[in-house]
């Protein structure tokens, strides 16, 4: 019997997930840039860890620019990544709230590599604060880092992604799916990021550009978790269906998939990487 068309493999997965699938490609990753304070810089490094460490260690072959505000920290991280992987990783100092600095980071990337294929919008800021005590400036600060920063990054890179028929990944969250206490600022900011990605998908799809969101759940050893973990709670985060905290590799693997040809027909999606945590409604 001849198998029907839909059961025939369109592509051999071993051809997609070969070690050098991203050879010749260039990644531009904002990890925070605008944060200004020390913890923000730390978050930048962690977002870079999320994706780049595994991304490059697996030797998928991409070169990368990592973008942040603290040049010294970026330079050290770029050096470590280059040494560990054999790929070229360069630092570029920029504040995602300031378009000009992002444009300069993009220009540096083009000068060095000649192209940009992948962009990770990973800049984020967070702290716990009830809305009753959340100042206008505090709210605005997170909106500017997360939402305006994403907009600025997209505007600075879009011509290059059109040219390469490239792909965006926006690092969002699951906080805004319900009312998460003390997270009004981040919930509003990330909801807007999800919306931006959907619009980019429909407007830029005809130009060959894809856009997707990764929404990490509780990921161990991140700045976000250390800030959001309820005090005295050892359970939160490991009590989900997966029975453990997420690992940065879980996020990195999702990114590799979304950037890869295996996801060539995947755009406008929010990929929740949380071990099923978001599916819990009641615990008995
Ligand atoms: C109330 C606070 C506050 C707090 C700052 N503010 N921290 N308000 N509670 N804990 C207020 C300040 O008082 C000020 O308002 C305004 O916010 C701006 O503060 P600055 O320190 O001047 O801003 P800046 O130096 O730019 O720092 C940005 C930041 C900071 C967002 C405020 O927390 C930061 O740099 N964070 C980066 C690290 C981070 O948050 N990583 C987590 C990302 S993970 P006033 O009115 O006084 O002027 C994530 C997803 C998590 O977001 C998902 C997990 C499941």
Task: Name a few traits of the molecule.
284 residues; alpha/beta; Rossmann fold; seven-stranded parallel beta sheet; 7 strands; 43% helix; disordered N terminus; binds hexanoyl-coenzyme A
Architecture overview:
- With 284 residues, this protein is of the alpha/beta class.
- The chain has one domain (22-274): Rossmann fold, CATH 3.40.50.
- Helix content is 43%, strand content 13%.
- It is built from eight helices and seven strands, in the order H-E-H-E-H-E-H-E-H-E-H-E-H-H-E.
- The longest helix is centred in the middle third of the chain and has 29 residues, at 136-164.
- The protein is globular.
- The structure holds hexanoyl-coenzyme A.
- This is 2,4-dienoyl-CoA reductase.
- It comes from Pluteus cervinus.
- Which runs of at least 5 residues are low in confidence (pLDDT < 50)? 1-6, 32-59
Largest sheet, in brief, is: 7 strands, parallel
Query: Secondary-structure element sequence?
Result: HEHEHEHEHEHEHHE
Radius of gyration (CA) equals: 19 Å
Mean pLDDT equals 81
Return the domain count: 1
Q: What are the distinct ligands in this entry?
A: hexanoyl-coenzyme A
Q: Structural class of the secondary structure composition?
A: alpha/beta
Q: Briefly, what CATH class?
A: Alpha Beta
Q: Give the CATH topology.
A: Rossmann fold
Q: Helical residue percent?
A: 40-55%
């Amino acid at each position: 019997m001849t198998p029907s068309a839909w059961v025939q493999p369109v592509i051999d997965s071993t051809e997609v997930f070969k070690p050098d699938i991203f050879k010749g490609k260039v990644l531009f990753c904002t990890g925070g840039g605008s944060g200004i304070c020390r913890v923000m810089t730390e978050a930048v490094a962690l977002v870079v860890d999320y994706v780049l460490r595994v991304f490059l260690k697996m030797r998928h072959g991409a070169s990368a620019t990592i973008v942040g505000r603290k040049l010294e920290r970026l330079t050290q991280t770029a050096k470590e990544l280059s040494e560990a992987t054999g790929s070229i990783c360069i630092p570029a100092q920029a504040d995602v709230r300031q378009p000009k600095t992002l444009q300069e980071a993009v220009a540096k990337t083009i000068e060095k590599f000649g192209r940009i294929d992948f962009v990770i919008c990973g800049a984020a800021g967070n702290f716990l604060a009830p809305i009753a005590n959340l100042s206008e400036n505090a709210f605005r600060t997170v909106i500017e880092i997360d939402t305006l920063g994403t907009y600025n990054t997209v505007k600075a890179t879009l011509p290059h992604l059109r040219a390469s028929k490239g792909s965006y990944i926006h690092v969002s969250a699951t906080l805004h799916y319900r009312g998460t206490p003390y997270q009004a600022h981040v919930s509003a900011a990330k909801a807007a990021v999800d919306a931006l990605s959907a619009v980019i998908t429909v407007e830029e799809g005809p130009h060959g550009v894809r856009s997707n969101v990764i929404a990490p759940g509780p990921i161990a050893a991140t700045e976000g978790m250390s800030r959001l973990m309820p005090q005295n709670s050892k359970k939160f985060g490991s009590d989900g269906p997966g029975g453990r905290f997420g690992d940065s590799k879980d996020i990195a693997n999702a990114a590799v998939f979304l950037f890869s040809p295996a996801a060539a027909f995947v755009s406008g999606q929010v990929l929740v990487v949380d071990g099923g945590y978001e599916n819990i409604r009641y615990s008995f």
